[in-house]
Amino acid sequence: MTRIEPLTLRGPLVTLEPLRHGHHDELLDAVRDGEPWKLWYTAVPEPRQMRAEIDRRLQLQGQGAMLPFVARRNADSVVLGMTTYMDIDPTMPRLEIGSTWNRASVSGTGTNVDSKLLLLRHAFEVLGCPAVEFRTHWMNMPSRAAIERLGAKLDGVLRSHRRMADGSLRDTCVYSIIASEWPQVRAGLEHRLSRHLGSAGKPSR
């Protein structure tokens, strides 16, 4: 795999589009829905930090280490949040799906399932990754549960791995899905997504 260039991935519920500076105001609106930056075990940017966070992600994109996306709901074009391919190793190739946050109000609507299906399908079926990683805080139980529902397996825990904004040390749970598991994981995600779609493959109302 050579350097991953910005691209757009479209599913039935969401479109993942390359992050731009012009997304700033829409992302401010999204992050205020649920105020996820107030959860001590997350690293979600608060509104006053959003511009710097966009700059940081785009800088990492320029270095080839990250490919940042904005998730947009197809039904009304509302921006839901951010996600990325990160820690990209083109020589394997291998990458992590992370730095993800979404509006609290879209939890359980299938948009995150659609987003993960798009990212995983592209990683395994287009980029040819033998494995895809997910990492989260040991104490972030909602994130850990969501990763495990994908079908990812826990590889291990990195103790005192990162320092959080409040100065505390984070124990990092490392999960992965390997290529041989992808067909079963894909079937599970497609089944979950189907529950949010009508018979014609359109979002149910």
TrEMBL record:
Residue ranges annotated for the N-acetyltransferase domain, each copy included: 14-153
UniProt-listed Gene3D superfamilies: 3.40.630.30
Pfam families linked: Acetyltransf_3
Protein name: RimJ/RimL family protein N-acetyltransferase
